[in-house]
Amino acid sequence: MTARTKVGVFGAGGRMGSTVCRAVASDPDLELVAAVDPSYAGLDLLQVAGVEAAGMMVAPDPSELSRAGAAVAVDFTRLDSALENARWCASAGVHAVIGTSGFGPEQLGELHRLFPQVGRAHCLVAANFAIGAVLAMRFAEMAAPWFETAEVLELHHDGKVDAPSGTAMATAERMGTARREAGREWAADPTRDLALEGARGGVHDSGVRIHAVRLRGLVAHQEVLLGTTGQTLSIRHDSYDRDSFMPGVLLAVKAVGGRPGLTVGLDAVLGFDPAAGTGAADPGG
Q: By the number of CB atoms within 10 A of the CB, which of 67, 77, 131, 270 ranks highest?
């Protein structure tokens, strides 16, 4: 019988963290061995996350992961905490799966340094763990060379503190790259007069405009709109609850140990790599 992979969860008391705890505890190939969250330290995990784990208590710091022998740590905390936790994982030899939003080039550069190809610990960071969202980014990337205009609309719950979302930023980047590789530029924006500043959203470095909505009742949603002569294409993905992210998280937890260094996004785990091109003339988070 194959031994189950031991997993610890950072931010175990948060909305995503508690969902991850339940998903890991329910997977027959994984074993939840540690839950870390300073805000809930000392409380029973059953009370915090609804997980019956033989009286497991929420720990105040990462040392519990070492004590419990965790091989993988999952992190959906805030950016500063996630970076600090990643530093700990790298030094402790624990693989890291990170879903925290807001990672930019600077933060990814640090992760590359923390998790070298020859290091003991590996890391997978993704802007979105919903498999449908990753596929939607891929489809938008494939479509970008064939449409002269494109905009991204992302919609999230009112507790999300960053905008635009990491998924929207990654989508725009990949669409822009695909269009450049095809030797094509986006059509110019025809807007000349703005009655309200910001009405046209923000312009990503790729030239794709992004519009961010924060609304109570939403979870995570994105629509990519592309247009060319006589036709439009809409690519939309909706996550209606946080369980939608769990298949991707569990996939990453099981895969990260076999992927040396830093892996960005679920693409390679799903069997395609954004760096390999779109196949058009040659995408999620």
A: 77
Task: Supply the pLDDT for residue 281.
Answer: 30
Report the pLDDT value the prediction gives residue 2, as an integer from 0 to 100: 73
Beta strand 149-156 with 220-228 is: antiparallel
Angle of helix 79-92 versus helix 105-114 axis, rounded to 10? 10
**Catalytic choice (6, 95, 122, 156):** 156
Segments in the chain below pLDDT 50: 275-285
pLDDT tens readout for residues 132-150: 999 999 999 999 999 999 9
Note the pLDDT of residue 279: 34
**Given 112, 157, 160, 254, which residue is catalytic?**
160
Closest by CA to 140, choosing from 220, 219, 234, 204, is 234
> pLDDT at position 3, please?
85
Residue carrying the six token digits 């979870």:
219
Is the peptide bond preceding residue 164 cis, with omega within 30 degrees of 0? yes
Q: Answer yes or no: 6 catalytic.
A: no
Nearest to 269 by CA among 165, 173, 149, 125: 125
Is 254 among the catalytic positions? Answer: no
pTM of the model: 0.85
**Site of tokens 């994105």:** 222
- Which position has the token pair 């905009």? 151
